[in-house]
Specification:
Helices cover 35% and strands 13% of the residues. Helix 1 packs parallel to helix 3. The protein is α/β, with parallel strands linked by helices. It has a five-stranded parallel sheet, with helices on one face. A three-stranded parallel sheet has the order 2-3-4, covered by helices on one side. The chain folds into two domains: 96 residues, no CATH class; 299 residues, TIM Barrel (Alpha-Beta Barrel), CATH 3.20.20. The chain is built from 14 helices and 13 strands.
């Protein structure tokens, strides 16, 4: 095997870029044993092995003859027709091998838009009227990420609402007014959403009664619907106001008809699923945002049907919370082996929310966990009869943009 130790670095680089380290070396071992004298040099040597690898992977084309195949250069954001893409006197291969190339870049914002749009298309195709509401990440609404930018029509068309936490209260601390500049920043996007036919939902974190009143009034004045949570863990039905803001007896069949909502994710204060269901059944909120599970017990279709009528007789919507920018280690899809051998799309644990891990949300494997097959999370939401999804960690693009900027 000694003659193969000189396997050219260019072939290794191309191989690693194409399929990843583990698969690459497994494949290389097989191909080393099967390579023939492809270049007719009278011996089977490293060149033949590289050519065999490249042919197997469809990587044989190297238009600029710099040692990096075209497919690898495209993945790195280089020009496959120019050996020195940045015209600095050093070939692309030399720069990559010396680790001086700028890191490959992606449009993380468009990746998230594409993900949300795919979720929306999938759900609405079989369930017309299904509601899709992303929380935070409001910069995705426009091409340049500003409230005055050009709206991204394809993304907006996929949405029924947008949620924004801490709009009036809670940005710096719970029960503390959000700084005016931050508040106005959020309001610019929420107004833009409303102008484009998307219902704005505000979640403020405040318990002082005066602040609660101001939170609801501030949202109502701009056409938003809102929920003032008395604590951030979302474990309680607030005792104030005694009835939901803008309570009504009307039937609510679309998000635009809702005048209020309850955001209640954590059922830890309820002894049983039946206690939890009974507590919210007895309210007159127009819309619920709840989890798919009561602890580890998934809600059934019958459970969800029982929630769709307000105590006063009007109908309401029931929407499921679903995190798509982080994996949660208490979800059914979590594998114990991920703690020591994580999949390549799983990132570090969120230090602010233990048990939550950033993910490469553009990765097909992660997306298949979220939707598109009978075991996927969204498919379970649909099977249970929820009226929509409330998508969280939409702003995960900020994490990856920050990482990219640090390189």
């Amino acid at each position: 095997m000694g003659r193969y130790r000189t396997l050219r670095v260019g072939g290794i680089v191309s191989l690693l870029l194409a399929v990843g380290v583990g698969v690459a070396w497994s494949l290389a071992k097989v191909l080393v044993l099967t390579a023939g004298d492809i270049d007719y040099s009278s011996q089977v040597d490293a060149v033949d092995v590289q050519l065999t690898i490249n042919a197997a992977l469809g990587l044989s084309i190297d238009s600029d003859q710099d040692g990096l195949c075209d497919a690898a250069e495209v993945r790195l954001g280089l020009n496959p027709a120019i050996a020195d893409s940045d015209n600095d006197g050093v070939s692309d291969f030399q720069e990559y091998f010396q680790e001086t190339l700028p890191p490959p870049t992606r449009d993380y914002r468009q990746d998230m838009r594409d993900f949300v749009q795919a979720i929306s298309d999938y759900a609405k195709t079989g369930h017309p009227g299904f509601v899709v509401i992303p929380q935070n990440g409001q910069e995705l609404l426009t091409a340049d990420g500003t409230a005055t930018g050009t709206p991204v029509s394809a993304y907006i068309a996929a949405l029924d609402g947008v949620g924004r936490e801490d709009t009036f209260y809670g940005y710096d601390a719970d029960d503390v007014a959000t700084p005016p500049d931050v508040r106005d920043y959020f309001l610019g996007f929420l107004d833009l959403a409303e102008q484009n036919g998307i219902q704005a939902l505000v979640i403020d974190y405040c318990s002082t009664l005066e602040f609660v009143d101001q939170s609801y009034a501030g949202s109502a004045a701009r056409g938003y619907i809102s929920f003032a949570a008395d604590q951030r863990n979302l474990t309680t039905i607030p005792s104030y106001p005694a009835t939901p803001y803008n309570v009504n007896t009307s039937d609510v069949a679309t998000l635009s008809q809702a005048r209020n909502f309850l955001y209640l994710l954590n059922p830890e204060l309820f002894a049983t699923k039946e206690d939890f269901l009974a507590a919210i059944q007895g309210t007159n909120y127009d819309l619920f945002v709840i989890d798919l599970y009561f602890n580890e017990d998934r809600y059934t279709a019958a459970d969800i049907v029982s929630l769709k009528t307000k105590a006063n007789g009007g109908s309401r919507l029931v929407v499921a919370y679903m995190s798509i920018g982080e994996a949660e280690n208490y979800r059914y899809y979590w594998q114990p082996t991920w703690a020591t051998n994580p999949p390549p799309w799983l990132e570090a644990e969120n230090p602010n929310w233990p048990g939550n891990y950033k993910v490469h949300y553009w990765d097909p494997e992660w997306q298949s966990i979220i939707f598109g097959n009978p075991n996927a999370y969204l498919d379970a939401v649909l099977a249970a009869g929820f009226d929509g999804v409330y998508l969280d960690i939409i702003d995960a693009f900020e994490y990856f943009e920050s990482k990219q900027g640090d390189r």
